[in-house]
Amino acid sequence: MKTILNFAITALIILLLSNLFSDKIHIDNFWWALGLAVVLTALDAVVRPILVFLTLPATLITFGLFLWVINAVIILLADFLMQPHFTVKNFWWALLFSIMLAFGQSLLLIKKESDVQ
Question: What is the pLDDT of residues 57-67, one digit of tens each?
């Protein structure tokens, strides 16, 4: 149940960001935003570890800031997979989208630490 709620909240954040930057980021509707949340989760689970491993020297040199570039690449990959229902204009908008999505998720999603107590 908690996973479904997290996907729904992420989809709402995606819709909000799409409306906020409507000329640069586009998602068709809530259902496609929910699908994008699932695709991003799958890409984070499969592709992200490979990219982190391959770019480890760059990540270490930049003190971890290169991870934001990896997040933007994952957004662009999701854009490629979900065309034409989800589009991002370019890399810089994907980077801003990933930063704003991470910030929104950290504010709104239910934290797992509360389950431990």
Answer: 999 999 999 99
